[in-house]
Write the structure tokens for this entry.
Amino acid sequence: MKRVLHVLTDTNIGGAGRYFINLVSAWNFGRYELLAACPSGGELERLLRNMGIKVFTISGGEKSMKLQHIKQIRDIILSEKIDVVHTHASFAGRIAGRLSGRRVVLTRHGLGAGKKDFFHRMAAKIVSIVFTDCIIAISRAVKISLIENGVPADMIKIVYNGIDVEKFGGVEPRLKKEFGIADGPIIGTVARLVPEKGYEYAIKAMMRVLKSFPKARMVIVGDGPLRDKLKNLADEMGIMSNVDFLGYHENVESLVADFDVFVLPSVSEGMGLALLEAMALGKPVVATEAGGIPEVVKNGVNGLLVPPKDEKFLAEAIINILSSKQAAFSLGQAARATVFEKFSARTMAEKTMEIYDTILRKTGE
């Protein structure tokens, strides 16, 4: 049986970690064995071990490129007789794969902010050709971004993010019960507290929402470097009593189950796993027209889309959903149908295995 090593640079569970967990949930282990390498001591390592994945730890922290990582990963590749190295943000993993004579796959999860001048485009093209056999883009928007930054189009395959839809059948809500959030509608979001997620616009929009729904609460699930800054913003605006920062949680679907509307105010977004999960729960969503989001959300059909960086339109869309239970229900049901039909982990896993088949076949293996 062929063996695939996924190299992840996250200690805790970010986008790449959740992607891999969803991939594992639908994987055919009789076709390819999956192993993982990641930094030690975090939630990601613990959860993957609990799922029965063989995990190798990498010392030296969350870095895309460190010389010591190249040696550590190469040692794993050779000792475990790895056939395919599948990296996420780890350039060291790509180098180690190539030095070991293995096939290398990269999944690009975000749009990035690469430089598009001739020199940088040529450098990106050379690096891609030399160190990678195939690049997976999680959306059409990510593929376009890669091409604009110099990556050859024929190296890129679109494989949409998928989630384990089976786990969204009978979710038991726990937000109101555990955190005492009982009165008023709940506007919620789940994401890392980083600039590209646009949280400040959601908090500013909340000021407008409270004029129509004074008892509304905004629940923010996730952690990150902007936590203190965002708390200060809510405090300065005088709405801290209506905004709850819950930090990082596992099994977020049981928290999202109590949301009345899910908001994703991103200014840059490859796809958005949390968005898919909220839609799978039948939640009406308000999201921005950023990156790959419009490939999932069709305005007025299975959610509402607004321009990025615009708290006025964001607030209006939230108010529209909260003002009509029938509209909210219809959007939520359409959202759920979309995810179950097009964005399942099973489809993502099958397409990923087809890519492995192709690159191994090219080398006569």
In short: The radius of gyration is 21 Å. The longest strand covers residues 32-39.
